[in-house]
From TrEMBL:
It comes from Nostoc edaphicum CCNP1411. The active site is at D42. Keywords: Transferase. One of its GO terms (molecular function) is transferase activity. This is Chloramphenicol phosphotransferase. InterPro entries: CPT, P-loop_NTPase. ATP binds at G15, V16, P17, R18, S19, G20, K21, S22.
C-alpha cells in the first residue's frame, strides 16, 4: 500500500526591511508544532556571491540593472525549493519583501504564486508604520542620510510604498501593535480556525 505524503504548511511573511518578519520567523520555529524550515530572503542572500548581492533583496527603484535580470531566476529557485520542502512534508516559513518596482516589471509575485500551486500557503502581510521602521534602523546603526526637507530617505519610502502592492493577503499583522510572539499566535490561530488559504490563488487570478 502506497502512503500519501502529507504536505508541509508554508507561511510567507511579506513586508519591508525592519518590519519584524525575522522575529516572527524565530518564534514560529521555536514554538509551533513540528519542524519549520526558514527559507527566507536572508538565507538566500547568504548563499549569493558578493558581486550579485543583494540578489533577491534588491530594493525598489531599478538601481542595479546589471543584476536585475538574475533576480526573477533567484526568486524562482527559492520558491521551487519552498515547494520541494512542502512536498516532502516539511513546514516552511519565509520572510521576504516582494515588490515589482524594478527597471521593468518582473511579475515575480505572480510567478511565485504559480510555483506553489496546490500547496498549503498562508500569505501574511507584515505591516509597520514608517516612523517605527526609521527608529529600528537608527537603533541598528543605520545612517539615515536624511534632511529636514526629506525626513524619510527615498529608498525607505519606496519600500513602504511598493511592498504591499497589490495587498492581497490571507492575514495581516502590525508589529507596531503586537509583539512578534503575539503576531505568531495570531498566525497560529488563523491556521487552526480558518478555511484553506486562498491569497495565492487570488493573486494568480489578479495577474491573469
Amino acid at each position: 500500500m502506497v502512503q500519501t505524503q502529507e504536505l508541509g504548511q508554508i507561511i510567507i511573511l511579506n513586508g519591508v526591511p525592519r518590519s519584524g518578519k525575522s522575529s516572527i520567523v524565530a518564534v514560529i520555529q521555536e514554538t509551533f508544532d513540528g519542524l519549520w524550515m526558514n527559507l527566507g530572503v536572508d538565507r538566500f542572500m547568504q548563499m549569493t556571491p558578493a558581486r550579485y548581492l543583494p540578489g533577491i533583496g534588491l530594493r525598489p527603484g531599478g538601481e542595479r540593472q546589471d543584476i536585475e535580470p538574475f533576480v526573477p531566476i533567484l526568486y524562482s529557485a527559492m520558491y521551487e525549493s519552498i515547494a520541494a520542502h512542502s512536498r516532502l512534508g516539511l513546514n516552511v516559513v519565509v520572510d521576504v519583501g516582494h515588490h515589482d518596482a524594478y527597471a521593468i516589471p518582473r511579475r515575480i509575485l505572480d510567478d511565485s504564486a504559480r510555483r506553489l500551486n496546490g500547496l498549503p500557503v498562508l500569505f501574511v502581510g507584515v505591516h509597520c508604520p514608517i516612523e517605527i521602521i526609521m527608529e529600528r534602523r537608527q537603533n541598528t546603526g543605520w545612517k539615515l542620510g536624511n534632511t529636514a526637507d526629506s525626513p524619510t530617505p527615498h529608498p525607505v519610502q519606496l519600500w513602504q510604498d511598493e511592498v504591499h502592492i497589490p495587498g492581497i493577503y490571507d492575514l495581516e499583522v502590525d508589529t507596531s501593535l503586537l509583539s512578534s510572539g503575539a503576531c505568531a499566535e495570531v498566525i497560529r490561530q488563523h491556521l487552526a480556525d480558518s478555511p484553506s488559504p486562498s491569497a495565492f490563488q487570488r493573486l494568480t487570478a489578479h495577474y491573469t
